[in-house]
Specification:
The chain is built from 15 helices and 18 strands. With 474 residues, the protein is α/β, with parallel strands linked by helices. Strands 3-4-2-1-5-6 form a six-stranded mixed beta sheet. Strands 7-10-11-12-9-8 form a six-stranded mixed beta sheet, with no helix packed on it. A hairpin with a 2-residue loop joins strand 11 and strand 12. Helix 3 packs antiparallel against helix 5, helix 8 runs parallel beside helix 9 and helix 9 crosses helix 11. The N terminus is likely disordered.
Length: 474
């Protein structure tokens, strides 16, 4: 295979490109990963193709990704079949995203692996390819890219370079994730007083401020200031060094209660302002257990479905990932199958339909039936192809969704639909997903600053002193 060696050396010499060897799980996680390595070259072992073939059957997300990866490789190779041995330029098929070359294994590779590593295992065959390439091309970095932690450990134990696939990660540290709120410094008004305008309309006071800090604000970001006269507002306009801050509805006051629920802290008040505003189509709420994400969302949904008739019904869905061992197949209809996963819904409805003002048990039962008739529980498995019109769509446990699954769900929204994503990125139960690569982190980052979306991270638990202490010390 001298042609490959010559092409690799000239490529490396021209721009110092690295050679990345792709493990199968990277392609099954993100089929477009072929175009995510910019100026670097890719090498796909024959065993990676074999594993793609073994995983392509079925209707799961993994099977769909395996088929898509196979189709993409077929399109790339079919365009220039004679260039496989010398490397296929990726610039044209990637529309300029990648400028490196794609190499496929076209020869039998035999490398002696350490005793104890069975050569029949696919992971070890990929490692042998990596060892072969590292010896053949010592002039440049040859790196294994894998989502499998043990595969990376084995590679490093053999003295080979290995790394995780980072392109799907929104951020490296979850503490850097956008929180949706910002504290104003004590001298904010003095520093931005020059030329400030203020006016009142529809019960809200607005302030147009100009200065260095407003240039960093995002649309629908909340700002607050402690002191003798606490100030809470959100950014309604932002351009250059100028921003318009509008005061909020105070949902901590009983006169503004939502389905009998009032905000217990500042972040809950911010959340209710997002949930109750008809101009906000997409809301993300993050927070640990007990911060009130589901309760506030259901209260806002019921108020806007049954009182103001803004939406026709509430649709609630969640990822069905068990925390322990799976309990097997469940009997019944779609809603009956989803019932065991909807304990949070039942618990919160018990709170919202609490002791009725009427003494009659019949009256409470009738109210409960009315509420339940307007809440539909749907499975994620049947969401493709659907369009929800004038619905209040709640996606619970959204931290277990991949970015691609999140896109599939959010694009179901039709005219007049509001989508609310709830989750805690510290409780991810899905393999291959981390705090940085979760679909929830992905949408929080991508939607920030859009005029019709809002986000808030709920900080304080309001469930009980026991739950708060457990969340802190355990």
């Amino acid at each position: 295979m001298p042609a490959v060696r010559k092409a690799n050396k000239s490529s490396a010499a021209s721009h110092g490109a690295k050679l990345f060897v792709l493990d199968t799980n990277v392609l099954m996680h993100d089929p477009t990963s072929i175009f995510r390595f910019e100026e670097n070259d890719l090498y796909i072992p024959i065993m990676t193709l074999e594993e793609l073939d073994n995983n392509k059957r079925g209707m799961s997300e993994v099977a769909r990704n395996a088929r898509q990866a196979s189709r993409m490789l077929d399109e790339i190779i079919s365009a220039v079949p004679d260039a496989i041995s010398s490397g296929i330029a990726l610039e044209a098929p990637s529309h300029g995203l990648a400028t490196g070359r794609l190499f496929m294994q076209t020869e039998a590779i035999s490398v002696e692996l350490p005793t104890g590593l069975p050569t029949a295992k696919s992971d070890n065959q990929i490692l042998s390819v990596l060892m072969f390439l590292a010896r053949r091309e010592p002039e440049r970095a040859v790196i294994l890219v894998s989502k499998d932690i043990n595969m990376r450990i084995k590679a490093r134990a053999l003295g080979l370079a290995a790394q995780d696939y980072f392109n799907d990660k929104v951020l490296e540290d979850s503490e850097l994730l956008y929180t949706g709120a910002c504290a104003l410094p004590a001298d904010f008004w003095e520093a931005h007083a020059a030329g400030m305008e203020s006016w009142s309309a529809e019960g809200h006071t607005s302030y147009r401020v100009t200065g260095p800090m407003p240039s960093r604000f995002l649309l629908n970001q909340f700002v607050h200031q402690e002191g003798e006269r606490p100030f809470e507002a959100w950014v309604r306009e932002q351009s250059g060094r100028t921003a318009v801050l509008e005061t909020l509805v105070d949902y901590r006051h009983s006169k503004n209660s939502v389905w009998g629920i009032t905000a217990r802290n500042r972040e809950q008040n911010f959340a209710l302002n997002l949930l109750m505003n008809p101009d906000i189509d997409f809301v993300t709420l993050l927070g640990q257990a007990g911060t009130g994400k589901t309760l506030l969302t259901l209260a806002a949904g019921l108020t806007q479905v049954l009182d103001s008739r803004r939406y026709s019904e509430i649709i609630m869905t969640r990822v069905t990932v068990p925390v322990g061992e799976d309990i097997g197949f469940l009997p019944g209809s779609e809603e009956e199958k989803m019932a065991p996963w909807m304990g949070a819904l039942e618990d919160n409805l018990d709170v919202l339909n609490g002791p009725s003002s009427e003494n009659s048990q019949w009256g409470r039962a009738a109210a409960t039936d009315l509420v339940r008739s307007r809440i539909k529980v749907k499975s994620l498995n049947f969401m493709r192809g659907r369009t929800f019109i004038q619905k209040f769509l709640i996606i619970d446990e959204a931290q277990n969704l991949t970015p691609k699954q999140m896109k599939t769900l959010i694009t179901r929204a039709g005219p007049g639909t509001k989508v609310v994503c709830l989750g805690n990125i510290a409780q991810i139960d899905t393999p291959y997903l981390t705090e940085g690569s979760s679909g929830l982190s992905f949408v929080v980052d991508r939607f920030k600053g859009w005029p019709h979306s809002g986000h808030i991270t709920l900080q304080r638990g309001e469930r009980s002193r026991l739950a708060d202490y457990a969340a802190e010390v355990l």
